[in-house]
Amino acid sequence: MGPGRLASLREVSENVMSDTAALDTVLPFTVPELDVRGRVVALGPALDAILARHDYPEPVARLLAEAIALTALLGTSLKFDGRFTVQTRTDGPVSMLVVDFQTPDGIRAYASFDATAVAAAVAEGRAAPADLLGRGHLAMTIDQGGTMKPYQGVVVLDRTGLEEVAHVWFTQSEQIPTRVRLAVAEVLTRDTGGIARHAWRAGGLMVQFLPESEDRIRARDLHPGDAPEGHVHHHVEPDEAWAEAEALVGTVEDVELTDPEVTAERLLYRLFHERGARVFERQPLVERCRCSRERVAGMLAQFTASQVDDMTVDGRIVVTCEFCSTHYEFDPATVHAGG
């Protein structure tokens, strides 16, 4: 979970106004009585900034927002300096999603899609995330940099949504009982001048069962799926604490994850106040791209002279960052091509 200052979760009265400072943050929490830990993410302006740079159709924007919320939940749990990337490659109308998290707080994202196929899916009522993704795979990559070899886990996508994929990934890769909820909404907000404007909101909740006693740890462990043929698996009754936590998470509605009036603390109080949930300090999220003119120049230097010539149009080389849409122009004469 990472270091943090513990404080008792306090009840939030129903007439308290929304806390805008809680947007673009992840709130880690623990419920000691149930042996569960988790995180709540609330995305606002940072999500708006990412989506505003691209003319995404509404279903594509929603899907990418879900992926950003999922990546924020997972990436902010890293206990080292590095990168965490979630990427899909599928045969659906949205062929690729890429969300890149740079510790401790930077996030960027983009989607590749077929506009005609997306429009057809919407017209036919097939615009759910699972329909837009189609079949393919999702990869989660952890890169600590330096001499450390990146770790990658791959999950098959077969017309499944991102919540279901997250559950499969934790079952296969981490063997930790985990439940994830994701939600996205379009809302109307008012600026300081009282002018109404459209805004995106995304929220997510992740809860994991992490008991400390050895007996409960053995009962917690999931079937790894690679036992020899003929092996007899012993039936283990579900842990009552985890069953209770799962049931409570199952009651969470989408609006509770996206409504500005429902802060993370208020949501946790609704779910776990009888069990005494505790929260750590919030972790901020910042929309930030890592591209720069120097990085792009370094990339161009890896191409051969012939390739540089092929990229030249009207005497200029123009490179556009897929994440932030920033345009970089270069004079081919200044590009030091590789051999």
Describe the protein in words:
The chain has 339 residues and is α+β, with helices and mostly antiparallel strands. The protein folds into two domains: 265 residues, 3-Layer(bab) Sandwich (Hsp33 domain), CATH 3.55.30; 42 residues, no CATH class. 29% of the residues lie in helices and 29% in strands. The chain has eleven helices and 15 strands. Strands 1, 2, 3, 9, 10, 11 and 12 form a seven-stranded antiparallel β-sheet that branches. Strand 2 and strand 3 form a beta hairpin. The N terminus is likely disordered.
Topology at a glance:
Blueprint: E1 7-8, E2 25-31, E3 36-43, H1 45-52, H2 58-75, E4 83-90, E5 94-102, E6 106-113, H3 115-123, H4 129-133, E7 135-143, E8 151-158, H5 162-174, E9 178-190, E10 196-209, H6 214-220, H7 240-249, H8 254-258, H9 264-272, E11 278-279, E12 283-284, E13 286-287, H10 293-300, H11 305-311, E14 317-320, E15 327-330
Give me the count of strands.
15
Q: What would CATH call the class of the largest domain?
A: Alpha Beta
User: Looking at CATH, which topology of the largest domain would you report?
Assistant: Hsp33 domain
CATH superfamily of the largest domain: Hsp33 domain
Radius of gyration: 22 Å
Terminal residue distance: 47 Å
Task: Please tag this protein with its features.
alpha+beta, Hsp33 domain, 2 domains, 29% helix, disordered N terminus
Concise synopsis of the structure shown:
With 339 residues, the chain is of the alpha+beta class. The protein has eleven helices and 15 strands. It has helices at 45-52, 58-75, 115-123, 129-133, 162-174, 214-220, 240-249, 254-258, 264-272, 293-300, 305-311; strands at 7-8, 25-31, 36-43, 83-90, 94-102, 106-113, 135-143, 151-158, 178-190, 196-209, 278-279, 283-284, 286-287, 317-320, 327-330.
